[in-house]
Amino acid sequence: MKNVVHFIIKEIAKSKYTLLLPLAIILLIVSLSIINHHQSGATQHELEETFKNRKATVNFLIGRALSKERAVGLTEEQRQSLDSLLVQEQYLQEISNKLKVNDLEIASTHLAYINEYEKYMQLVSIPYNSKSLLEIEQRKVEQLIEHDLSYTEQATPYNTALFTKQLFQLLFSPATALLFLLIFCYKYLFDRENRLFDFFKINSLSPIATYYGYLISFLLSILMYIALASLLSLLPPLIMGHLNTVHYPIEVAVGSTIIMVPVWKWFVFLPISWGIFVALLLILAICLLKQRISLGMTLALITIPFMVGYIISLHYGFYMANPIHLFISYETHLLATDCSIIYLVWMFILLILCFIISYPIIKSQWITFRVADFHISKKQYHPQNKWKLLQFEHLKKKRKGHVLLTLVLLFGIMGGTVAVVNQQFQAIPIKALKTIEDFQSFIIEIRTNWKASEEDFEIDNPEENPYTAMVESLNESYSMLENLKSKIGSPNFYEKFREALRSLDPPTYKEIDGALWTVSVMASEEQQNILDEKKITAWPLGHQWISNFDKHSDTFDDKRSTALQLMQERNTKYGNNSLFTVYKYLNWNIMLSVLVIFVLLLWTSMSDERQPNPSIDFLTTKPIRMTSIYITKWVYNLLIAYSLLLISSVFVFFISTIIGGLGESDYPILVYAAAKLHDGYFYSVIDDAYFYFENLSTLILKSSLLIFTQIFFLNSLFSLIGKWMKNHYTTIIMTIIVVAVGYFIADHYIAMNGMYINPFIYFDTWNVVDGWKSIAANDTKVNFLNGSAILFISGSLLFCIGLLSKRKVSS
């Protein structure tokens, strides 16, 4: 075994790809650092806005107290509260001055302000801060002072331990784990097919020594990768002298409670959990590959147990025995508690158990160790009477591994969409908590003004004070929201949440001036009417529909822009059923990525036969016409694309249904319209647009038809360019360039007359189906029916041009 390990490690070390690994990590670090450096400032801006608002409130209270002092004088208690406000103003001014010059060392001043505010609260009954938010700030600032730290950029860090945390989450992710598994499988199969196993056997090495030699070699490679990635990731804060930021506290929401977790917990957990996870994958892979199971089946069998673990975690929550938590739900359930070390120890024990169980499987004689002849193991080309050329194309792609790799990537893209949708669905309680706290801050700001007016209003009978009812109403709203926070995680929370938000909304849009009817306001109410009429459960959290007019609005007012962003966040509708997953897949326009994968890896063209081994010369020596070769390649591309897309879509749809159910096919979705075409349309005066509602299932079917024609058109374009080009890679590059340029022109000049005939407009699948493209073009001709027809007709035209054009067989 020692000889096998030494041989494999030496072979890996000599590989040029191994030498490129440090360069790739360094390139990632430098690129991410530059990007973050140019986009930094989110935390500073957030702090500036927070203290700017507090300073404005303090100035208002000070001005009110001074006016009262000049008019009627102040009591001793009121004088003390004024003095406290003046001290708070000094602290807030000092903080603001530092933030303006990008100085985030405000922790001690911030704590002093909080302490002074608490003294102020003992004197008066006009709280202008949220007590819960202030407690969170106090816990954070106390930890910063304890470790002699300043506030730092959290959203886009570039020179602190938070940047290392961001790198860890990229380098030790499920994607890199899958990549490591693929490298192991390909290395194993390559060596087996090249009869390296026979070489080991001739040198008196047992099968157990060979298999365990491969496994241990890659386990050592895991450790080397972890050490290399960790060392390089720690260099930025180490060089900049900010390594002490490993103690920086990060807020993690556990239900309605915010827990402060230091950054170093990610540093400990992520590398160890990633290493254990990859080791489990490799043990499963070596046991399956030893049984002569194909690579595709091996990947499927490895995926199944972890997919089951993921589904269990979604349905039943956190369990210490579930290895999926090495990547999922670890922050809330492990890092925010003291269970992380216990969990990692248990997972390490599980790894040892799997390693022991693998021994009898590898030692078993269920199959013969001797590797079959290399040429026999490769499937020979024995054409049948029909579809000879199609078999020829498929066999070439299959031998190159392109079909399997494309299928793996398709499952990765669609499965990744499912995972992202479900992870965001799991994050709804956190979003709800943030929404509630935003509302409470808003209520406190209004209540401060009314409370001040209530105290200033001189009246003999306090019950007749007109401001008292307003203050009490706001107090009730605040208490209602505070009570709602305690119900986060309960089964009926989402229903209570929507009811609470609706109770805080203004009257129905029909009760206000028609000049204020935006698409968002109108559509939210009309959609709710449809949901109530059809008895459909609304997607959790969002009680309003935010239209694209608000999402794409150009606002120069930062406060208005922030308000819109908060509104969109709190009204983001989310589900975890299969229909919702498909909706998000289309809405995110991930189909463009799928089409690029087909072009890069799977599709074949005439140029594919010319270089570097011109098999087209061989084909044309047979009684096969050039047009037959061209048609065959065109048909093969269509068939393989449609079949792989169908297989992966059905599988992912099935998994999504298991996780969250099918969903409501009649769920009403907003559809925009540039003009009124029939009854049932609504019109917004402000946005100058029509809209109506259509079933989610109908829109998905329309999108499917559009995707069908997109593949048809792109395949014809690729085939035509491949007919004209000599080199296959040139064909790929030219196709992508043509599509990118066409898409750019269609997107930026969509309002030009006649632009609706541009087929590239219709590659933005969901925006075509939901009518937004017709709004952008101000043309009703931009719709999915015309788009499908134009893509099909233009694709057919490109196919005919390629079929009829002439080109010499070889140069």
Automatic annotation (TrEMBL):
Keywords on record: Membrane, Transmembrane, Transmembrane helix
Keyword Membrane attached: yes
Domain of life, per lineage: Bacteria
Keyword hit for Iron-sulfur: no
Coiled-coil spans in chain: none
Residues passing through the membrane, by range: 17-35, 167-190, 211-235, 266-289, 301-321, 341-362, 403-421, 585-603, 634-659, 699-721, 728-746, 784-804
Cleaved signal peptide residues: none
This protein's name: ABC transporter permease
Organism of derivation: Lysinibacillus louembei
